[in-house]
Design a protein that fits this description.
This protein has about 230 residues and is an alpha+beta fold. It contains 6 helices and 7 strands, in the order E-E-E-E-E-H-H-H-E-E-H-H-H.
């Protein structure tokens, strides 16, 4: 038996009663687990299947390297949150969507795991800009965030500020927003206006498409836009 602490990123129903859980673990990074019978009528663990729930999962060792581990026990971690508001839920779904896409090849990364813990705390405190900060932090942790410069315009291809605009969306206003994030000692304390939030989100998605292989904008973003715009 082996116990792992993890954030649930997504899950896929398998047959009538089973599911495959895709998680980011503190011990091994991205992992998939087979949850037998989690959809059965007598099983009370189905409510655990909520994006970014922090779980303690005990698994049997995989019988072969090409097979995923089967869960023997699953519990909510002691410091889990009860997210009830629609706005919070939509942000969590989008953040988990984003992570499921970008972390599939990610190994053990304690810094990133702690950052996910932080964004969950911020969301629970109704910081509705937290998911934007988190994506920016992810870019920094991954080593692809822009380098600060005194020039006016951010070039999203090179990640460097320049004297002349290189991308039609990255005008002086958007570039200035990036500078605010790069200069901030605690970006989670920043508060954006509605138009700034929307513009910075679009800029983040463009930057991710350029710097993250095969990245695409998560479908759940449409729900976030409807709620906040």
């Amino acid at each position: 038996m082996q116990t792992q602490n993890c954030f649930l990123l997504s899950y896929l129903k398998y047959g009538d009663n089973d599911a495959v859980l895709h998680c980011f673990t503190v011990e091994n990074g991205f992992q998939s687990f087979f949850a037998k019978g989690i959809y059965s009528a007598k099983n009370k663990m189905k409510p655990y299947l909520f994006p970014l729930n922090l779980l303690n999962i005990t698994v049997f060792k995989a019988v072969a390297e090409n097979r995923i581990s089967r869960i023997s026990k699953i519990e909510l971690a002691p410091d889990h949150y009860d997210f009830q508001e629609v706005a919070m839920n939509s942000i969590l779904f989008f953040t988990a969507d984003f992570l499921h896409q970008v972390l599939r090849e990610e190994g053990k990364n304690i810094m990133l795991f702690k950052e996910i813990e932080t964004v969950r705390k911020e969301i629970s405190a109704q910081n509705y800009d937290a998911y934007l900060v988190f994506i920016f932090k992810y870019l920094s942790i991954s080593g692809v965030a822009p380098l600060y410069g005194d020039q006016k315009f951010l070039n999203p291809e090179s990640g460097i500020f320049e004297d002349h605009i290189s991308h039609p969306f990255f005008d002086e206003a958007i570039s200035s927003l990036w500078k605010r994030f790069l200069n901030s000692t605690d970006a989670y304390e920043m508060r954006l206006k509605r138009d700034e939030r929307s513009s910075f989100l679009d800029a983040l998605m463009i930057y991710c498409r350029i710097h993250i292989t095969s990245f695409y904008t998560p479908n759940s973003l449409a729900v976030v836009r409807q709620i906040f715009e």
